């Protein structure tokens, strides 16, 4: 990220869900230890895998923006989208940054479920122009949802930078989008899964 003004988005729901998963992992670990049965020890590897995935897939995922770019950190990769490459912000299934090179979805900002829609207030006043479909507010753009809140964060900074003339226009197709794979997370997750399956099958 650059040294400009930085803003980040994390899903509160995802983080609450991560805490629930960790509590269940502690309970499962305690149960295995109390049972003192060697045949159940392989389950600890699956518990460790669940705890790791809760960390990287629920707690750590985020969207971070500054005056140069948007950084989308998902479980197994981080995508860096310069503002000059951005052509659309979509929220149909989750916050999705559309560029000439492809569409990049953030798991930190999923679109709302049916239950969330029932509980959400359709506050159109906080939504930038151009996000309504046939005069109606898109479900994914509702400000009280993860995708809606993240979209507002991105769209407002995008519009601000455009108004200030700080984004070069007409170069989207020539502006590269970078993806950095989280190889440590990928390898560790695969190792825990394989080891758990092997031990379970041979016990």
Quick description:
By secondary structure, this protein is α+β, with helices and mostly antiparallel strands. 42% of the residues lie in helices and 22% in strands.
Can you characterise this structure?
The protein has 203 residues and is α+β, with helices and mostly antiparallel strands. It has one domain. The protein has helices spanning 12-35, 43-59, 114-119, 146-163, 183-202, and strands at residues 7-9, 62-65, 69-73, 77-82, 88-90, 94-99, 102-110, 132-133, 136-137, 178-181. The strands form 3 sheets. A 5-stranded antiparallel β-sheet has the order 1-2-3-4-10, covered by helices on one side. Helix 2 packs antiparallel against helix 5. The chain is elongated.
Provide the spatial order of strands within the biggest beta sheet: 1-2-3-4-10
Largest sheet: 5 strands, antiparallel
Strand content: 15-25%
Determine the structural class based on helices, strands and strand pairing. alpha+beta
Instruction: Please give the alpha-carbon distance between the first and last residues.
Output: 48 Å
Q: Note the overall shape.
A: elongated
Question: What is the count of helical runs?
Answer: 5
Q: How many domains make up the coordinates?
A: 1
Number of strands: 10
What radius of gyration results from the CA coordinates? 20 Å
Helix content: 40-55%
Give the H and E element order: EHHEEEEEEHEEHEH
Entry keywords:
10 strands, alpha+beta, 203 residues, 5-stranded antiparallel sheet, 3-stranded antiparallel sheet, 5 helices
């Amino acid at each position: 990220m650059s040294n400009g003004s930085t803003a980040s988005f994390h899903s509160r729901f995802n983080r609450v869900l991560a805490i629930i998963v960790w509590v269940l992992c502690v309970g499962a670990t305690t149960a295995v230890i109390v049972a003192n049965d060697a045949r159940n020890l392989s389950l600890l590897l699956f518990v460790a895998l669940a705890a790791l995935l809760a960390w990287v897939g629920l707690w750590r995922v985020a969207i971070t923006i500054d005056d140069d770019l948007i950084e989308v950190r998902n479980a197994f990769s981080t995508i860096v989208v310069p503002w000059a490459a951005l052509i659309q912000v979509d929220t149909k299934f989750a916050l999705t940054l559309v560029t000439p090179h492809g569409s990049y979805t953030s798991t930190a900002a999923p679109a709302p479920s049916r239950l969330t829609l029932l509980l959400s207030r359709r506050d159109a006043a906080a939504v930038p122009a151009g996000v309504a479909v046939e005069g109606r507010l898109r479900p994914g753009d509702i400000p009280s949802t993860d995708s809606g809140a993240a979209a507002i964060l991105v769209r407002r900074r995008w519009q601000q930078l455009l108004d200030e003339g700080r984004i070069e226009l007409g170069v989207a197709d020539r502006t590269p989008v970078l993806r950095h794979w989280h190889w440590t997370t990928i390898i560790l997750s695969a190792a825990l899964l394989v080891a758990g399956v092997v031990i379970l099958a041979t016990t």
